[in-house]
Write a structure and sequence with these properties.
This protein is an alpha+beta fold and 350 residues long. It contains 11 helices and 17 strands. It has a 7-stranded mixed beta sheet, with helices on both faces. Strands 12, 13, 14, 15, 16 and 17 form a 6-stranded antiparallel beta sheet that branches. Strands 8-11-9-10 form a 4-stranded antiparallel beta sheet.
C-alpha cells in the first residue's frame, strides 16, 4: 500500500522564521518514514518556495539555501484536481501529488490563516487549525471577544489605532492601573510587547507596538502566573498536562521563551487538582469558541485566588522535543513521534 505523501512547510516571511527552522528540523527527524513519504518545503524570508532535499542539520544553522543542488523551485498548484506541489527543475514542470500538508510555520504568513487558505484552495488537507480559527487566534482582540462571549474571563483592555489620542491611552492606564501590557494586536512570540510599569514609558511602548501592527492593545496585567494547556484533536480532544511559567522578573518575552535565562517551566503545573481541572475546562471552552482543530496550545493566567483568565491561543506552537506543547503531551504519556503521528492521522490514513 502506498504511503501518504505529506509536505512539511518551514521557514516563511515571518519574524519567527528561525524558530520555524528549529521546529521543522525536529519534526522532519521524528516523523515515521515507514508510514509517510515526507516532502520538505522550505520558504525563504523573501517568500521563495523550494522542495528541499538536503541534510536536516542545515536547518538548525540556517544554511539550507546555500546548496542549489538541494533546492528545486516550487509552488502549490491551484488546480484542485492536481492536489499537488509543482516543482520546477530546469526546462520542465514536475508535479508531486500531496495527500496532506503540515505547516510548521510560526507567526505571520504561516500561522495566521494565509497558508491555510492557500492549501484549502489547492484542495490539500492541512494539519492543524483552519483559515478562520488561525486568523482569529492571531488577532488578540477578536479572540478575547469570542472567548468572553463563551463565558471565559479575559483581561480588561483598550484598542488603539494610529489616530487614537494618546490622552485616551493615558486615561485607560490611570483607570486600569500599572503594570499593564502594550501589545500589537496581531503578532507572535511576544514581538513588540512591553510590560509598562511607569506612565513615562507608555508612549515608547505604543510606538514599538505600532511597528508590528496597525492596531495596538493596552491590556491590564493579571496578577498570578501563566499556564499552558496542550490540546490535540477536533471532535474528541486529548489534553496534555498543564505547564507553568515561573518568572523571576519582567514577563515571558521572546528572549525568555527561547533561552529561559531567568525563568523556568514546570510540567505539570504546580496547582491543585481543582485548579488544574478548571484550567483544562476553560482551555477547551476557548478551543471550541475559536473553532480550533487538530492541535493548539491555549495559554491562560491563574490568579492567587484561583481565577482563570484567557491569554491567547498558539495555533502552531514550537515543535522541538523540548518545546512546551510536546512536553505537556509527553507528560500525559504521548511521546514526540506519537504526538506527530496523532496530528497527521487526523488528515491522512497511513
Amino acid at each position: 500500500m502506498q504511503k501518504p505523501v505529506v509536505a512539511v512547510l518551514f521557514g516563511g516571511c515571518s519574524s519567527e522564521y528561525s524558530v520555524s527552522l528549529h521546529s521543522a528540523r525536529a519534526v522532519l527527524a521524528a516523523l515515521d518514514r515507514n508510514k509517510y513519504q515526507i516532502v520538505p518545503v522550505g520558504i525563504t524570508r523573501e517568500g521563495n518556495w523550494f522542495h528541499y532535499t538536503g541534510p536536516l542539520e542545515t536547518l538548525e544553522e540556517d544554511t539550507w539555501t546555500r546548496n542549489p543542488a538541494c533546492l528545486t523551485p516550487a509552488a502549490l498548484s491551484q488546480d484542485r484536481s492536481r492536489q499537488a506541489l509543482l516543482t520546477f527543475p530546469p526546462d520542465r514542470v514536475v508535479p508531486l501529488r500531496l495527500d496532506a500538508a503540515f505547516p510548521v510555520l510560526h507567526g505571520r504568513n504561516g500561522e495566521d490563516g494565509t497558508v491555510q487558505g492557500l492549501l484549502q484552495l489547492a484542495g490539500i488537507p492541512t494539519a492543524g487549525c483552519g483559515v478562520l480559527s488561525s486568523a482569529l487566534c492571531m488577532d488578540k482582540v477578536r479572540a478575547h471577544r469570542l472567548a468572553a462571549e463563551a463565558g471565559v474571563a479575559v483581561p480588561p483592555g483598550m484598542v488603539l489605532t494610529p489616530d487614537t489620542p494618546r490622552q485616551a491611552a493615558l486615561d485607560f492606564v490611570r483607570q486600569a492601573g500599572l503594570p499593564l501590557f502594550v501589545k500589537p494586536v496581531r503578532s507572535g512570540s511576544s514581538h513588540g510587547i512591553t510590560r509598562v510599569t511607569r506612565e513615562g514609558d507608555l508612549d515608547r511602548a505604543i510606538d514599538l507596538a505600532f511597528r508590528h501592527d496597525r492596531r495596538v492593545l493596552l491590556e491590564q496585567a493579571i496578577p498570578g502566573f501563566e499556564v499552558g494547556c496542550a490540546i490535540l484533536g477536533t471532535d474528541k480532544l486529548t489534553i496534555g498536562e498543564l505547564d507553568e511559567i515561573e518568572l523571576s522578573g519582567g514577563f515571558f518575552d521572546f528572549e525568555e521563551k527561547y533561552t529561559l535565562k531567568t525563568s523556568a517551566i514546570h510540567v505539570p503545573a504546580r496547582v491543585s487538582p481543582e485548579v488544574a481541572a478548571r484550567v483544562k475546562d476553560t482551555a477547551q471552552q476557548v478551543y471550541r469558541a475559536l473553532d480550533c482543530a487538530g492541535f493548539a496550545r491555549v495559554d491562560l493566567f491563574v490568579t492567587p485566588q484561583g481565577e482563570v483568565y484567557f491569554n491567547e491561543v498558539n495555533t502552531i506552537p514550537g515543535f522541538t522535543e523540548h518545546s512546551r506543547f510536546p512536553a505537556m503531551l509527553q507528560a500525559a504519556g504521548l511521546s514526540f513521534p506519537e504526538m506527530l503521528d496523532a496530528i497527521l492521522c487526523q488528515v491522512v490514513s497511513p
